[in-house]
Design goal:
Layout lengths: L2 H16 L37 E4 L4 E4 L2 E2 H7 L2 H10 L5 H15 L3 H9 L7 H15 L8 H26 L13 H10 L5 H13 L7 H11 L4 H13 L6 H12 L5 H10 L17 H15 L2 H25 L6 H10 L7 H21 L26
Antiparallel strand pairs: 1-2, 2-3
This protein binds acetyl coenzyme *A.
Acetyl coenzyme *A binds next to helix 15.
Length: 416
């Protein structure tokens, strides 16, 4: 498999996505809210509008994912993760000198203070969940940064760039420590994606592996008001600090209903054991109301455009690797079986997490590290959106409808 083949796959995926024709009406902004409001309760904030944004757009019916006006297929095909980060943060594609300046900053920030690695070596990094360790690492980075409490837009932008650079380094170190190996320093000759693979595996990646990781990082960079982005923004809106906001985002992404699904999918595929077992496994899952990981989405009621790219990439990789081939064929059988039922009943299709794990696994990455890979990318969307909101900040503060009693008589403890 070559980097050119990856580009051909992206072009085919874009053509398929263009065939989605359903239109989803956009919500219209009317007027300022006046209390009390008449509201319909959307569980899990379904339907709630939190802010306006110019950063990114997901149209769930059309299967669109757009960053700053550019569709994800064009970015996956032509851009790099570094350029995509610049686009998200600054609102435009960089020219050569702007990109060179941005890359210089990433290079300068990529090496983390030794004290960070000392902390990772002094906690049970090999046994804890890597997302919990990642949160600890970001906390240490914040404690070591004398500018951490600067909550100006300029100050937080600089911290965002530091964290984009350093998240890959600490995730790489976590992967190494989990294998009982020494962390490796970043290689100044490599791209962000290349470095990330290098720091996880200790080996210089092939051009194809670097390209595939770059595409994965581009595709995971931003995705509307997802749970971890919203979490990051809520914390940042209190003028806490960017490190604290990102730590909260990591905690949110970790969950199996969100970024943690990429890890859970792999465990499900291994549990299923092969394509022949899919039908009976799914029947049991339906019976016990068990969710199928890597399927469904609050926003997409069409095929997730990211899965349109990652599925065929997983297929090409799996053709070259027997173990991944089995996982891939199990995944294809599961997709067919699940969409035949849930696609029709509930418009449930594979999401970004369904095929990404097979790709990472084929690259030799441990399953528990899949969600940190997501975080290494999503740090860009988290920080870009938190910064955009900070420019016209107002504390996030929704209300709940109280449905409990109001006139209880206090009973002393010996009377209860
Ligand atoms: N498998 C089986 N049934 C599902 C699935 C699924 N993966 N997803 C939704 N459903 C069903 C629910 O059981 C529910 O059925 P009901 O109405 O009969 O009770 C209905 O569809 C609505 O489900 P909710 O969970 O309320 O839908 P929501 O919009 O909250 O779900 C979510 C979005 C959390 C992603 C859900 O689809 C899910 O749990 N998927 C599995 C986990 C996963 O893949 N998460 C990653 C999402 S992408 C990301 O965050 C990066």
């Amino acid at each position: 498999m070559s980097a050119e083949q990856v580009n051909e796959l992206i072009a085919v995926a874009a053509q398929k996505a263009a065939q989605e024709t359903d239109a989803e009406p956009e919500p219209g902004l009317t007027k300022k809210i006046e209390w009390p409001v008449q509201a319909t309760l959307g569980r899990g904030l379904e339907g709630a509008i939190s802010n306006t944004t110019r950063i990114g757009y997901v149209n769930g019916a059309k299967g669109w994912l757009i960053y700053r006006g550019y569709n994800c297929f064009d970015l996956a095909k032509h851009s790099t993760f570094e350029e995509t980060c610049y686009l998200l943060l600054y609102g435009k594609l960089p020219n050569s000198s702007e990109l060179a300046g941005f890359n210089d900053k990433l290079l300068a920030y990529r090496t983390v203070p030794k004290a960070t690695l000392d902390v990772l070596n002094s906690i049970p990094t090999a046994k804890s969940h890597p997302m919990s360790v990642l949160a600890t690492a970001v906390s240490v980075l914040g404690n070591l940064d004398s500018e951490a409490q600067d909550t100006s837009v300029e100050g937080e932008t600089e911290i965002a760039i530091k964290l984009i650079a350093q998240m890959a380094t600490v995730a790489g170190a976590i992967a190494r420590i989990r294998q009982g190996l020494e962390p490796v320093n970043p290689n100044p000759q490599l791209s962000h994606a290349g470095n990330f693979l290098y720091m996880m595996t200790g080996e210089t990646p092939t051009a194809t592996a670097e390209r595939i990781m770059d595409v994965a990082l581009i595709l995971h960079a931003d995705h509307g008001m997802n749970a971890s982005t919203f979490t990051t923004m809520v914390v940042n809106s209190s003028l806490s600090d960017m490190y604290s906001s990102v730590i909260a985002g990591i905690g949110s992404l970790k969950g199996a209903l969100h970024g943690g699904a990429n890890e859970a999918v792999l465990y499900d595929l291994e549990e299923i054991g092969g394509p022949d077992n899919v039908e009976s496994w799914f029947a049991r899952a339906r019976e016990s109301k068990r969710k199928v990981m890597g399927f469904g989405h609050r926003v997409y009621k069409a095929y997730d455009p990211r899965a349109r790219i990652l599925g065929p990439v997983a297929e090409l990789l799996a053709m070259e690797n027997e173990a991944s081939g089995k996982l891939y064929h199990t995944a294809v059988a599961l997709e067919k079986t699940v969409t035949k039922v849930l696609g029709v009943e509930k418009k449930i299709f594979p999401n970004v997490d369904f095929y990404s794990g097979i790709i990472y696994k084929t690259m030799g990455i441990e399953t528990a590290m899949f969600t940190p890979i997501f975080a290494v990318s999503r740090i860009s969307g988290w920080t870009a959106r938190a910064l955009e909101y900070l420019e016209d900040n107002r504390l996030f503060r929704p209300r709940a409808v109280y449905v409990g009693p109001t006139k209880e008589d206090y009973v002393s403890i010996d009377q209860r």
